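[Q] Does anyone have a clean structure-token version of this?
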Amino acid sequence: LEQSIGIVTGGSEGIGFGIASALASRGAHVYLVARTLEKLEKAQKKIEQQGGKAYVRSADITDIEAMKDIIENIYRNNNRLDIFVNNAGTWKGQSIDTSFNEIRDLTNFDMMAPYELTHYLIHRFKAEKENTLKILTIASQAALQVMDSGLGYGPAKMGLVAGLFHLEKELQRESIENIKLYRLYPNTVATEKMMPAIREGKVQDPVS
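[A] Here you go.
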């Protein structure tokens, strides 16, 4: 990973920060992307204090054009992009009493945005044969089983993973070897953001 160039969405906290910190500790230059600049700068400082290289870009992942600009800028500045971590997402307990507008918003954030970004990255870099790009998507156990209070989150994660399988099939069909897709299926992770839901018993069996 020494000198690798990586982008981590949702990299200012939680799982994203953990991944970004681990990449930086192994010598990668990591770009943290999230909505809140203050949180990004705090995360950047932590990584730099640990001896890593981190940079920040503020954007909402549902703003696909802004994300494309960030990707292009990072690629141009470094003449390469080695790692893209599709991590940004959120969990909200939703039930049949939740308005469908809220369910739709969560689905757009947790499924459509990362799916579209992966599609864009494949289309953009498939011809860059000298650039090997590894795309890691943080899915969830909710992509593998029906979980409580997950009317938006569960279908979003299941749909995202289904889309990734189809994209992977297309990579194989077109013999595109410089782009690799990876998926991670964590259970509930005891991040700072998830602690209130864990304390209230809305989610169980958290892992570190």
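[Q] Thanks! Anything notable?
[A] Strands lie at 5-9, 29-34, 53-58, 83-86, 133-138, 179-184.
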